[in-house]
Design goal:
With 352 residues, the protein is of the alpha+beta class. Helices cover 20% and strands 31% of the residues. The protein has helices at residues 12-26, 37-40, 56-69, 72-75, 172-177, 197-202, 225-238, 336-341, and strands at residues 52-54, 79-81, 98-104, 109-115, 119-125, 129-133, 136-140, 145-148, 154-158, 164-170, 183-185, 222-223, 247-250, 265-271, 280-282, 286-292, 295-299, 302-306, 311-314, 320-324, 328-334, 347-349. The structure holds 1-hydroxynaphthalene-2-carboxylic acid.
């Protein structure tokens, strides 16, 4: 007598039959969800990206070597990709973002092009370097945060006597996830506009009469470091301090109060000397760039000692704790605006 199927235990023969079944259905492009479901809807984020720190002196030396090996013209963009070792070969620092450091030697230019991917820059070193976005030129100084919104023509140049280096952040992995990439180079670029025009119109807490929103991105090209730094200093004096973030300001689109670009948001924070943050995490993997000071961070169990211009990345949901040895200023960016629009973003302050 055969036992009823409901009480059958799984035998070696059954599991062999199942393997044969899986192989058979694979030929029809079918797969068993019951083998995959735990990985598809994990209990909490399981990012492939790892916590990583890049020490600036080492990256800078590699960039200058690249500068000796090829011209900016040959490279189109002479950028060393900050590639997350958990995502090797994919040109990504997180699951959704690209980051790299770009070098222009004195007198060099990077010609105009445009792409669907949105980009940001954090200017690190050099003088008389500029970016031109849709015809508007902006000189970049240390700590300046510069936008290149989606599909805007942009070119860079260095008219100064020293190498110019900046951090690039792009949403390339998001654009490519949706298979929505377009780009073009050369051709007719927009006519030159007066330099720093958008700063006069949108950068001083004022708006042009009848200003209208014509883009999903901020109309302000350059968010100056000096202005942000002064606000941070005043906020530090006046308090209060946030347990996770010290004092932190979000870069905002002056027309909406929302994020600077639809997919990427950026912020700048000050940690007072001796500050120890509470442990916190959020679903937006975040890239941090140290503008001033030194200290250390624990990111999901990894411990990093950071100093000026170092860059480190916190994967999604990895618990972050920062310690400032000296007063420190840290710039950061992430895909938070994209996640918020999709109803995905979460943060949690961990009980100590
Ligand atoms: C790009 O166009 C720039 O314009 C920098 O400076 C980095 C990384 C990936 C794709 C395009 C630039 C880039 C990039």
């Amino acid at each position: 007598m055969t036992s009823p199927t409901s009480t059958r235990t799984s035998s070696a023969r059954d599991s062999e039959a199942r393997e044969i079944f899986y192989e058979e259905i694979a030929k029809q492009n079918l797969a068993p969800l019951w083998q995959r479901i735990a990985g598809l809807v994990s209990r909490s984020p399981q990012p492939a990206a790892q916590p990583v720190l890049w020490k600036y002196p080492a990256v800078r030396a590699a960039l200058l070597e690249a500068g000796a090996l090829l011209s900016a013209e040959e490279a189109e963009r002479r950028v060393l990709i900050l590639e997350n070792p958990g995502l090797r070969g994919r040109s990504q620092i997180t699951g959704s973002l690209f980051a790299g450091l770009q070098l222009l030697m004195p007198g060099e230019q990077a010609d105009a092009h445009r792409h669907v991917a949105s980009a940001l820059r954090l200017f690190l070193e050099g003088s008389k370097a500029y970016t031109t976005v849709n015809g508007e030129k902006t000189m970049m100084e240390r700590g300046d945060f510069v936008l290149t919104p989606s599909w805007t023509w942009h070119e860079h140049g260095n008219d100064g006597p020293d190498p110019a280096i900046w951090l690039d952040g792009l949403d390339v992995p998001i654009v490519n996830f949706f298979d929505a990439s377009f780009s073009e180079g050369g051709g007719a670029t927009p006519a030159a506009k007066p330099a720093h025009d958008s700063e006069a119109r949108y950068g001083g807490g004022l708006l042009p009469e009848n200003a209208e929103r014509s883009s999903l991105s901020s109309p302000l090209l350059n968010y100056r470091y000096g202005r942000a730094r002064e606000s941070l200093a005043t906020m530090q004096r006046n308090g209060p301090l946030d347990a996770c973030h010290g004092v932190k300001l979000r870069y905002a689109n002056p027309l909406t109060g929302g994020a600077v670009m639809p997919t990427i948001g950026a912020a700048i924070q000050l940690l007072p000397a001796g500050f120890d943050s509470a442990p916190c995490h959020s679903t937006d993997a975040t890239i941090f760039a140290v503008v001033e000071g030194h200290g250390s961070s624990e990111i999901g169990g990894a411990k990093f000692e950071w100093a000026e211009n170092d860059i480190f990345v916190a994967p999604s949901w990895a618990v972050r704790r920062h310690h400032a040895s000296t007063e420190a200023v840290i710039f950061s960016f992430s895909d938070r605006p994209a996640q918020e629009k999709l109803g995905l973003w979460r943060e949690e302050r961990k009980p100590v």
